[in-house]
Write a structure and sequence with these properties.
Helix content is 54%, strand content 9%. It is an alpha+beta fold and 537 residues long. Among the domains are: 162-242, Gyrase A, domain 2, CATH 3.30.1360; 251-530, no CATH class. The strands form three sheets. The chain has a four-stranded antiparallel sheet with strand order 1-2-4-3, covered by helices on one side. A two-stranded antiparallel sheet has the order 5-6. A two-stranded antiparallel sheet has the order 7-8. It is a multi-pass membrane protein. This is Peptidase M50 domain-containing protein. Residues 85-106 have a biased composition (Polar residues).
């Protein structure tokens, strides 16, 4: 028979039992989330502590008195129960029996009751802290989103799991491509911050290949510039969240409807008699045939513009939606709105597609304009105009002065080939689409050449100037309204937005923007040299 334990041993057992009892009270209100609470106890168990037998109290007490072991040790102790409990506490309890333990517990009852209020206060504070932390964790959108314009179909079932994030950090990214320093959630995906290594295009290709090898087509990676600090970031999102938008009305039907109205406005624009009274158009439809040639020339220039986009898109692998031709009773048409329905690879590809349309339209329109100034009217009479009309365009006015010479005088009527006005209308439509604003061709060109931040500033400035011009010009008014509601952007993200286009493509883009500016700016100089001399005197 074992000898009775010493009084010191019994006191130690009672203290341990009281400690366990207090910890048990606190644990009933603390969620087992694996976080470190204000009590300094890390609750690793996934099962609630409430309702366990007294033997598990010794496990909680030991977790308080010992240094925190690794996760595997804790789990083994919890599974073993009495066998894995503290030896000192077991021996004290076994030797004195449960009766002595109950006596010791009665002695500590007052102490436990006095501390219950403190434990409850600690529980409330810990619960509030956990609730606050939970609220922080559900934030899904990062500040300063680098993916403007991205339409994502968010669903909890497509969130990227933590195991996948670890593979992305350790095996997809790396020292040779993009060294990850931090990460944060972005909508349905993850935004990685870090240091870009090597050339962006080559690094992106390596990252894409590794991502494909690990996950197939499950995820899509973007290499972008963070607008917050102008540093490279990588964004990974599930591909199924990047589904294209659908419309209630089929695109071809809506585009065909707009096309029919545009044909009507092109005909109407070339019949001045009907422009004076639009309501009389339906009573005099036979007069529309007089505008067929002018409408045809302008339509050909617009069509060549769109064909340029289509050919460049086919060469770069970019998919375009059905073009929507926008009608206008002032100039016949505002051109066409063409959406890009897939993700563009890089800025150079976007520049090729955006510049191809204006380049083709400007080229054909300029050639036809020159022919209109050089060739005499087919009927010998032509179209009689006031030369002051050429002051509305720096390009057209300069060519008129250069080609017509002294025949161009202020206040003297002039007969010109109608091809001049028809080609001029086509040039104006191309120039309007080349304004560096929003998702117009000019806005995409500016974005491709100078990046998102500078292009956004240029776009805001251009729209502001159009707004001022709208006070004096009805064409500018309708155009700024159209841009604001349909084309103001932002431009959807490219797969890799860091690499700049080659210099020859940048030169083409700058030339297009300048040519469009020459078409839109007025010609400020008088056509008669004598008037210029009088002005100088």
């Amino acid at each position: 028979m074992a000898s009775p334990p010493s009084q010191a041993t019994a006191a130690a057992a009672a203290a341990a039992y009281g400690c366990c009892q207090r910890i048990l009270l606190a644990s009933t209100s603390l969620p087992a989330t694996g976080r470190r609470t204000r009590l300094g106890l890390t609750l690793r168990s996934s099962r609630p502590l409430v309702g366990r037998r007294i033997r598990n109290r010794r496990f909680a007490c030991q977790a308080m008195t010992e240094t925190e072991p690794d996760g595997n040790g804790d789990e083994e102790k919890e599974e073993l129960g009495d066998d894995a409990s503290s030896p000192s506490v077991d021996s004290a309890t076994q030797e004195n029996g449960y009766a002595e333990s109950d006596s010791n517990a009665d002695n500590t009852k007052d102490e436990t009751l006095n501390s219950s209020d403190t434990v409850q206060n600690i529980d409330a504070d810990a619960t509030a802290a956990n609730d606050a932390q939970d609220k922080v964790e559900v934030v899904d959108v990062a500040v300063g989103s680098p993916l403007p314009g991205m339409k994502q179909q968010l669903d909890e079932s497509v969130r990227i799991p933590k195991a996948t994030i670890d593979i992305l950090k350790d095996q997809v990214f790396g020292f040779d491509t993009f060294f990850v320093t931090s990460q944060e959630p972005y909508e349905g995906g993850i935004l990685f911050k870090g240091n870009l290594r090597g050339q962006p295009a080559k690094s992106y290709e390596k990252i894409t290949n590794r991502l494909q090898n690990k996950f197939g087509d499950q995820y899509k990676v973007f290499l972008l510039i963070n607008p917050e600090d102008e540093k490279p970031v990588a964004v990974v999102v599930p591909r199924q969240t990047l589904q294209p938008e659908t419309t209630a009305v089929p695109e071809w039907f809506a585009a065909a409807s707009f096309g029919v109205v545009t044909i009507f406005t092109l005909l109407l624009r070339n019949v001045p008699v009907l422009q004076d009274n639009l309501l009389s158009t339906f009573d005099n439809l036979e007069l529309l045939k007089d505008g067929v040639y002018g409408a045809l020339v302008t339509a050909v220039i617009i069509g060549v513009h769109e064909i340029g986009h289509i050919l460049a898109a086919r060469d770069t692998g970019i998919k375009l939606a059905v073009p929507y031709f926008v009608p206008s009773w002032q100039i016949g048409s505002f051109g066409a709105i063409t959406r890009i329905i897939n993700i563009v690879r890089n800025r150079e590809d976007l520049l090729k597609v955006a510049a191809a349309g204006p380049l083709a339209g400007f080229s054909l329109g300029f050639v036809l304009l020159l022919l209109g100034f050089i060739l005499p009217p087919s009927d010998g009479l032509g179209l009689v105009i006031d030369p002051s009309v050429f002051h509305e365009s720096f390009l057209v006015g300069g060519l008129a002065k250069l080609i017509l010479g002294d025949a161009l005088k202020e206040g003297t009527k002039l007969s010109v080939n109608p091809l001049v006005l028809w080609a001029w209308a086509g040039l104006l439509i191309n120039a309007i689409n080349s304004i560096p604003a929003g998702e117009l061709d000019g806005g995409r060109i500016a974005f491709s050449m100078w990046g998102r931040k500078i292009a956004t500033r240029i776009s805001s400035f251009s729209i502001g100037l159009l707004g001022i011009s709208a006070l004096f010009n009805d064409v500018a008014f309708y155009w700024v309204v159209l841009i604001f509601f349909l084309q103001r952007g932002p431009i959807a993200p490219l797969s890799e937005e860091i690499t700049e286009p080659e210099n020859n493509y940048i030169s083409i883009g700058v030339a297009i923007l300048l040519f469009g500016l020459l078409v839109c700016l007025p010609y400020p100089f008088p056509f008669d040299a004598s008037q210029l001399t009088d002005f100088d005197l």
